[in-house]
Amino acid sequence: MAFESLPGVKVTSHAAEQTFVVGDFFAVYLHGEENPTIYRWTEVKTITESRTDFIIHVAGVAYRIPKFCLPDEKKLLNLRGILEGAVSFNPKIEYVHQKRILPPKYLYISGDPGDVPYTVNGFYKEREINLSNAILLNTRLRNVFKLITLISILSVFAYLHFSWGDTEDKWFWYLPISVFSGGIIVMLVYLVCALIANFHYSQLYKTDPALSEEITFSVSTAGFSAVESHLQSGNEFIPWGEANYFIETNNVFIVYKHNKAVFWLPKRLFSKEIQTEISGFIHERLVQK
Asked: Cβ–Cβ contacts within 10 Å for residue 262, how many?
């Protein structure tokens, strides 16, 4: 399975009096008992990652692994990598996770990535993600903003007509006032939406430890990847066939799968010439929007 080379993780929950060993299998030790209950990943029904826990449902039991029992962030990310690797190998497992920037590891396969002409290590920056989110928001809601503008113009014009009257003589004043007001209203709506998007990312930046880790980014003939450097083996990648299209902003390349962003590649990690090459390289494999 993907990320099968990751070392197993042992976690003890003193509150639940349980010790978990997560690796090739999922084992649960109850305190005071020598023999564990061992589950194969094919027996697991659901895995959920919340802000505070990893929850594994198996055999009618929900085992909860608190994140505070994993104060070492690298160990926590190692555990998440094992769980998502198990999901990639057993797609019948229902997996629920929070929104994130790094591609979920269940999207990866393990194999030969082919030629890897573009690979680099670096960190995500909150500002470039926020700016890109604002651009994407404008692109996604462009028609909505146009509709809001039109409704605002008509509403202001109607207000002036019914409040002040004499429209036949004053329409050349009412019309520019209405257009100007419509522009102001849609700008305010856009700013509110952008602030909400930035707030959500800021919260994500605080809760997802992967965003503070060094990431290894790769774009190859077989696929692409963005993996925490301490977990990266070079053998895991997401095939191009799993993606639908990509968008290029001033700051990042963003690859989409089913209208959800799964891969963010910061352009600042490459020279201008290489950025142009990467754009063409991706364009040969995906539609650009």
From this structure: 21
